[in-house]
């Protein structure tokens, strides 16, 4: 999915654009979906691709929504060497929206912690 910067700016709020298109980060403990405990799916705010299931969400205490796994094929990974760190960035495989980062300190069985900016997601409750 390819859109111009202007098209993304028209579709997204200023904060959504800053995080998803400019690789920003929302302040910890401020995201609307951080404490969401409802059953359903987490979608990319840019293209509505289903990225995470509520079944894999957990409270990591890090200040951002955390998931132990992504839906297969919906997230892609890039090495991120910004800010003097060596991290793995996670992006929407469909539209390249910046979502956050994945770390190897999550719960079993995956051992992964997908640390995701709440503003990069929308939530679709399960009927």
From TrEMBL:
Instruction: Give residues annotated as binding Zn(2+).
Output: 44, 47, 92, 95
Q: What is its EC number?
A: 1.8.4.12
For this protein, what reaction is catalysed?
A: L-methionyl-[protein] + [thioredoxin]-disulfide + H2O = L-methionyl-(R)-S-oxide-[protein] + [thioredoxin]-dithiol
Task: Report the residue ranges that make up the MsrB domain in this protein.
Answer: 5-126
Give UniProt keywords alphabetically. Metal-binding, Oxidoreductase, Zinc
Tell me which residues this entry annotates as catalytic: 115
Signal sequence extent = none
| Pfam families tied to this protein | SelR
Which molecular function GO terms apply here? peptide-methionine (R)-S-oxide reductase activity
Cofactor binding summary note? Binds 1 zinc ion per subunit. The zinc ion is important for the structural integrity of the protein.
- State the needed cofactors, names only: Zn(2+)
Q: Which InterPro entries match?
A: Met_Sox_Rdtase_MsrB (IPR028427), Met_Sox_Rdtase_MsrB_dom (IPR002579), Mss4-like_sf (IPR011057)
SUPFAM superfamilies reported in the protein's UniProt record? Mss4-like (SSF51316)
User: Record's family?
Assistant: Belongs to the MsrB Met sulfoxide reductase family.
The protein's name is Peptide methionine sulfoxide reductase MsrB
Source species of the chain: Rheinheimera marina
Lineage summary: Bacteria, Pseudomonadati, Pseudomonadota, Gammaproteobacteria, Chromatiales
């Amino acid at each position: 999915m390819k859109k111009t910067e202007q098209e993304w700016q028209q579709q997204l709020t200023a904060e959504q654009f800053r995080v998803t298109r400019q690789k920003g980060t929302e302040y910890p403990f401020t995201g609307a979906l951080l404490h969401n405990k409802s059953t359903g799916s987490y979608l990319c705010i840019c293209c509505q691709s289903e990225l995470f299931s509520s079944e894999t969400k957990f409270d990591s205490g890090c200040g951002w929504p955390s998931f132990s796994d992504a839906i297969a094929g919906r997230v892609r990974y890039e090495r991120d060497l910004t800010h003097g760190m060596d991290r793995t960035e996670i992006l929407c495989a469909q539209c390249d929206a910046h979502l956050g980062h994945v770390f190897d300190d999550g719960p079993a069985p995956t051992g992964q912690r997908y640390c995701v900016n709440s503003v990069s997601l929308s939530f679709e409750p399960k009927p």
